[in-house]
Specification:
The protein is of the alpha/beta class. The chain has 3 domains: 3-170 and 310-413, 3-Layer(aba) Sandwich (Rossmann fold), CATH 3.40.50.2300; 173-302, 3-Layer(aba) Sandwich (Rossmann fold), CATH 3.40.50.2300; 424-683, Rhopdopsin 7-helix transmembrane proteins. The protein contains 19 helices and 21 strands. The protein has helices spanning 80-97, 119-131, 173-186, 200-215, 232-244, 256-269, 286-291, 313-318, 328-339, 375-397, 424-449, 454-458, 461-477, 487-521, 534-558, 583-606, 617-640, 644-675, 682-686, and strands at 28-31, 41-43, 47-53, 56-60, 74-78, 108-114, 135-137, 148-149, 167-168, 191-197, 219-226, 249-253, 275-278, 301-302, 341-342, 354-355, 402-404, 411-413, 415-417, 562-566, 573-579. The strands form 8 sheets. It has a 5-stranded parallel beta sheet with strand order 11-10-12-13-14, with helices on both faces. Strands 2-6-3 form a 3-stranded mixed beta sheet, sandwiched between helices. Strand 10, helix 4 (200-215) and strand 11 (219-226) form a beta-alpha-beta unit. The longest helix has 35 residues, at 487-521.
Length: 694
Amino acid sequence: TSSSQILKKGWAFLHLLLVVSVTQAEELVCRRRGDPENPQLSKDGDIVLGGIFSFHSSWKDRQDTYMDKPLPLQCTSLNFRGFQYAQAMLFAIAEINNSTHILPGISLGYKIYDVCGSIARGVTVALASATGNEMVFVPSDVPCTRPISHFATCACLSDKTKYPSFLRTIPSDYYQSRALAQLVKYFGWTWVGAIRTNDDYGNNGMAIFTDTAQQLGICLEYSVSVFRTDPPEKIQKTVDIIKASTSKVIVAFLSHMDMDVLIHELSRHNLTGYQWVGTEGWIFDFQTAAMDRHHILDGAIGLSIPKAHVSGMREFILDVKPLSSSSNELFTEFWETLFSCKLKNSKSSAENQTECTGHEDVTGVQNSFTDMSLMPIFYNVYKGVYAVAHALHNILSCNKTCNSDTLRDACVKKEAEFLSYEEIMGALLTAASLFGTCMTAVVAFIFFRYRQTPIVRANNSELSFLLLFSLTLCFLCSLTFMGRPSEWSCMLRHTAFGITFVLCISCVLGKTIVVLMAFRATLPGSDVMKWFGPAQQKLSVLGFTLIQVIICILWLTISPPFPFKNFKEFKEKIILECALGSAVGFWAVLGYIGLLAMLCFILAFLARKLPDNFNEAKFITFSMLIFCAVWITFIPAYVSSPGKFSVAVEIFAILASSFGLLICIFIPKCYIILLKPEKNTKKSMMGKGAPKSF
């Protein structure tokens, strides 16, 4: 993390972070070493926001021996501003949790850390808050957290190539720096000095000011940097430069904490009579003005953030009860500093202080904690929390049909997947279906054209034409499985499939029985054909089909198939499919088809050694063998195929079994009709030969 992200006011900025909850072991690339960072203020919630503020404005480095693990920073100089920022954040969270319009039913929690104005500690805490003190993952090109600053104005942070995830609720210094140069030019000050905070805020802001000033004809006598942790010698050197200068106008691009340090040193030298031009960092800060007892800053002008008012925020900030949830040591320090007293059992080294009762009233206190001059900054904190809340509300309002976009800040509709006519697989299956339909129509035309020939009449022409009609329906019913599923298409596809295939198998079964009966009718004294004549054949087909119709009606009445959106199969897309409704109904339909197919296969197998010239049973046996093989392999393939491929498997099974019946039963006859007409005679049909083994 670059120090550019940890700018200004000693890390007194809001860093709102969604705590990452994804813990996929295969993505683990590193683990943060060292002791875990414990938040100074925390509350559990469904979603946890992280806040990074400076409850202390300075720190002391502990002496490292390089023999033991380095000790943590020793934070010093309690900073009431940090507590005010934290209170503003808690106020916004409390409002959102009590709201019925934004994030209803979702509780926001928080973890707020103290960085003591240290960039190094800020980096550590930022990583801890972003990763939940656990692990660091390698994201894609998109950062998994969104820091939102209320006070980081550096223009450098506007570079989205370097800081793609950084957001803020305060304008960039690009505009403030140029406006300061225009302000100096307006008053005719062309010879000025410049002082800046030695961080990205001050250095970048002053660089823009310098460029603009040169364009406007303003000259800088000197430009020096200071930082609140600089040694006294360096601060003294800055004061000496000011004293030795001839310019009486000083442009100060400083944070309020750095300005406080500088004011303290300038007061010691009583350096008055300068015209100060300031930034929003200190120009309207009450604490800075209160420290200026020697009137160093009299007449200072500058730019500030527009005023703001949020109903109830002032009262909430001054209510210190929420802060009692902080670590005991921090709350003790805060309470004792705020009320200038000492709590019982306190480790404070302060002497000559009254004992705290624990019931002190903040209304009688006049210090930087009760000062509301920074309300515009508090409002920026408030807006930052609401920005996250609204983003969460929008994201969580997305239903299962959405994914987050590449930047993870908006909902994008998931792709709906179903077997379409327009894709290659759908087009091929459609072509196969139409080809089968046309092929069946051609066979039907041939049979109709040669309907008076012996081979057509000998094979029960009525059942043959009914079988061809049912095969046409079988080929066409496969088309109902393609396209976007709807309520009607889901009910039609399974019932049409079930009924047409039963009609088809019933015709084949009728033809098989006719073959058996016809052969037995040639035996002396047999009258078996009167029991299975044309009328009985039609009734048997009708009866077998009606049973399937009844099963389908019961299925559609009790629990029909319906369109269903499958979100579990694939995370990135929605599978549109037809749910079975009643699995019993589906397997009853399929089971009944299988029962008829097995019965037909057994009868055809028994009739396989009848004389060849009148042996249609051999071809029926082949067709039923293909039919059963297709549907037996269909079951595991259907169950294991994901998404639209399961539909493709079902269509393939329908087409394969239909082609098997058409080719095995009718193509040999068409071959004789068209290419071997000499065999299409009554004499040839009635001829007898020795039976052959199958």
